[in-house]
Write a structure and sequence with these properties.
16% strand; Rossmann fold; elongated; alpha/beta; 6-stranded parallel β-sheet; 12 strands; 2 domains
Length: 307
Amino acid sequence: MADILIIKLSALGDLVQADGAIRDIRNFHPNDRLSVMTTPSYRIYMERCPWVDEVFIDPRAPRYHLAQILALRKRLHRRSFGRVYDLQQVGRTRFYQRYLFPPTWWLGDVEGCEVFLKRPDDRCAADHFHAHLRLAGIPATHTRRCDLSWMVDKADELLDQHGVEPGFVLLIPGASAAHSVKRWPWFAQLAQRLIEHDLQPVTVPGPAEMDQYRAIPGKTLVSKDGYLDYFALAGVAQQAAFVIGNDTGPTHIAAHLGCRGLALYGGHTPAQTTGIQHTRFTWLESEDLSDLTLEVVWQKFLEQAGT
């Protein structure tokens, strides 16, 4: 049994989009031990993923923290992975290949590695991984068709507790604090429009989003113990009649669960580089999201939801 490593450090949306590729690598190594290297924030997510056997945590220390970098190098040499699939393919992982790993078979974007392929700027991760795995002789059956059903926690009790009725619309108005340009500013007005048309808007805030979500009419879902985790969010999304969200991890979870929805993109990232085209979602784009009007979003919603 070989020891195989997949590198996928972050972020949530990127991990979601890599699910199909990870599953295809799992199927190619049915009798090997498959580990995934990720960061502490995504330990819980990857520990639940059915395609991997172990989660290998990278603290993602700055390179100038020499003691931590050397400690990671020691851990990697102790494992001696027989193959490494770099699905992150950034400067950090190129540095790891050159300086932290012992010589090993490597799929990535480091010049001279065994299976080299550079991702074009206009190609989404799923399309890139599809080409890259096929270059390595690995059938890419699921790479463009993720199945996140393993993420879903049943949400019936939670929805009942909050008085959420079938046919609700899940709104995802958040985004990383570092990417405020990804936030469409008219979700409160959209929620009010839904209410006026006898549709129930529902939001699921994260730990840093409560103030923003308080201004949005409708049902705000939290658990008795605090905020909902990714798995409860997935359960809520799966039962929504429709989802409208920014370019953020929870939106991509909903999309790759097979939900129907609408994603809103600013000029930060072109929609088709995120893989949204491989889902049932449609999308709208605007260089500045504040220029994307409520009326345009509403008409697109009516068109897609069949309301």
